Amino acid sequence: MNIENIMKDLNLIMLNIPNNLSSLEKVRWVYKKAGELFSYDYNYINDEESQVIYEKDYIGNYQTCIEISSILNLMLNNIDSNIKSEIVERNVDSRGRVDGHKCNVVSIGNEKYVLDLTLDLYLIQAGFQTKNFGYYTTIYGDEDIIPLADLEEMDKKLGLIKFGEYTDKKVNDAKSRINAPKNKNLSFEESVDLRISEMNKLLYKYNGFLEGKNLINKLLHDFMNYYYKDYYLTNENEMICCIQISNNEEEVWYLYSLSLGLIKTEKEKISQMLDSGWQTKSNSLDDELKESTLK
Fold first, then answer.
1. Are the beta carbons of 68 and 118 closer than 8 angstroms?
2. What is the C-alpha to C-alpha distance for residues 41 and 122, in angstroms, rounded to an integer?
3. Can you give the pTM of this predicted structure?
4. Three-class DSSP labels, 21-32
5. How far is CA 126 from CA 141, 211, 239, 255, in A?
6. N or C end of the chain: which has fewer CB within 10 A?
7. Residue 258: closest CA among 35, 4, 41
8. Which pairing describes strands 52-53 and 58-59: parallel, antiparallel, or unpaired?
9. Residues whose CB is less than 8 angstroms from the CB of residue 154 and which lie 6 or more positions away in sequence, other chains included
């Protein structure tokens, strides 16, 4: 298993914080640079090698939210005396349930900000504007909010806008192409294929499955005006996602994996995968596949 020790990269970040910055700008610089390094992957979180082992001067790039917030906490508390960071629990709504989730609250003078690097990893790495740096509060609501426009100005000053412009603009451009008058009379399948094609132009080659799936979720929400549902399959080494897209009369299926990206598939192929050793905990997927074989 190839798990890189990124301790040297974290040290490099700390040693090269630009001079003549405000405390908040230093925090922003460290946050985005650290966000380029980490991945959260279900296949690695229980592997002893991937955990934070400070005694051995070892940090792997695959971490949990607890470990990511712990590492960021150490980094932020060593920037300067004006910055104090602590780890807090934040409730995050995920698939209809509220889960305990760790992030950071940073105090700079009289101001406090919630920083949730775990949830921003996929956005930072694919060049999007962050959505979890001083943009939300905890359940107590006593933290400050930083407008996205202010963060954009800060990123411009610090040279932190990846690819020259936020990928958010590319998403808006893709929406315009999808909604062009010439596409008004496309069939259901043609329309879905067009939207998936635009998604594929924006997919980033992540190291971790969760970051990739988070981007897929975002782009499906932005581009797809049809009903869609996802199902997860696993084997001993990998997790993938099968996506059903429907207009209540027709349906198409796509598959997302780190190795293949987002590709078209069929129910029969998913059944073959399950027969060849892949597994799913989804009863609704089993029902879908059984229904297909009965037709």
1. yes
2. 12
3. 0.91
4. CCHHHHHHHHHH
5. 29, 9, 21, 20
6. C
7. 41
8. antiparallel
9. 24, 25, 28, 160
| Cβ contacts of 213 within 8 Å, gap of 6 or more | 241, 256
Q: Which domains does the chain have, with CATH numbers?
A: 7-161 (3.10.620), 167-294 (no CATH)
pLDDT digits (tens, 9 = 90+) for 121-132: 999 999 999 999
The angle formed by the CA atoms of residues 125, 163 and 25, to the nearest 5 degrees, is 70
Distance CA 89, CA 104 (A): 8
Report the b/e string of 233-263 with b at 16+ CB within 10 A.
Answer: beeeeebbbbbbbeeeeebbbbbbbbeeebe
Give the pLDDT of residue 161: 97
| CA gap 59, 5 in Å, rounded | 5
User: Stretch 53-75: mean pLDDT, rounded?
Assistant: 86
